[in-house]
Amino acid sequence: MGPRYDGGSTLVIIDLHRHLWSIFERYAAAREIAARGGVVGIHAHSEAPVQDVEARAAEIRAEMEKAGVDRSCLLLADYGLRLGEGDRSIVEENRLATDLARADPDHFIAFVGVDPRRPDAVDIVRDALDAGARGLKLHPCSGYSPADPVCRPLYALAGERGVPVAVHTGAMAAPLVSTYASPLHIDEPAADFPDTNFVVLHAGQRAWFPLALDIARWKPNVYLELSLWQGLLIEDEARFIGRVSEIKHGIGLGRVVFGSDCPGISKVMPLHTWVDAFRALPETARRHGVEITDDEVGQMLGGTAAALMGLSR
Predict the structure, then answer these.
(1) Which domains does the chain have, with CATH numbers?
(2) d(CA 275, CA 105)
(3) pLDDT tens for residues 166-196?
(4) Full-model pTM
(5) 3-state secondary structure (DSSP) of residue 93
(6) Are 298 and 14 in contact (CB under 8 A)?
(7) What proportion of the chain, given as a percentage, has pLDDT over 90?
(8) Where does the chain show beta strands of DSSP type E?
(9) Does the structure show a pLDDT above 90 at 8?
């Protein structure tokens, strides 16, 4: 019997962290630097791809069907103040996601993404939430701290609307900066806004995972998301399971949400392989002397995300 949640209901798998396009598809500067640096397994195109929303949505649906993913959350990172504005304004990019989610709610959920330093950031977030967005995405690698007072009106609005705040953590390639991508910068907001739920994207990655877990131990409104851990699973299965075990004993796997970070990570591990790795966790963990139950897998793959976003079957 497969993983179950919510009083025995069949599991709905939610990918809480994916994108219509990767940073390398959206920004020429990132493509050029990644190509020069030999970034492994990343979409580092020499030319900007044609951004056809309907074509990409069809690709994502096919990918989801192959993987058994029911809903994908479309997260948008606002890099405009760091990299220069893209081909579309940030308002237009957010509207693409909310329009797609409204047109196809059976597959897509929109998160609004904005740099809180924009003068109209609160209005952008409020308008997107009014249009159906179910979360907020912040990317501090654009050069601001999540603890900066400029973020506080966004956290208050998220708490009022009952939507989670997803925050990138972990180092990023130039021209983005990693200074404020430590989970430490989420600690103060989580303390000051106890009614707002925060999702630590990538769980701090490798360098800051212990810090992310320790903060989550003391802040019950902090959740961990494990995308970009695909590489760790490939390199060292025992270490991957060991870290999942640390989370289980530290805060419980009910505070973990599944995310892929596709398409940027797809060449490292396709979505269906990553989903299968989660489905197989009870058996894989058992080989390493760790117990993970089907119910815990169900919470990670969809149950917790559904609760965070107020979804029901």
Answers:
(1) 4-308 (3.20.20.140)
(2) 21
(3) 999 999 988 899 999 999 999 999 999 999 9
(4) 0.92
(5) helix
(6) no
(7) 82
(8) 4-5, 9-10, 14-18, 71-74, 108-110, 112-113, 136-138, 165-168, 198-201, 222-225, 256-257
(9) no
pLDDT score for 33:
67
Tokens of 59: 């690709």
Top mean-pLDDT range of 15-29, 44-58, 71-85: 71-85
Three-class SS of residue 110?
strand
Distances in Å between the alpha carbon of 92 and those of 85, 119, 194? Answer: 12, 16, 31
Taking phi over 0 as left and psi of -120 to 50 as alpha, with beta for the rest, 164 belongs to: beta
Query: How many Å separate Cα 3 from the centre of its chain?
Result: 22
Of 184, 177, 239, which is closest to residue 206 (Cα–Cα)? 239
d(CA 258, CA 301): 5
Q: Which residues of 166-186 are buried (b: 16+ CB within 10 A; e: fewer)?
A: bbbbbbbbeebebebbbbbbb
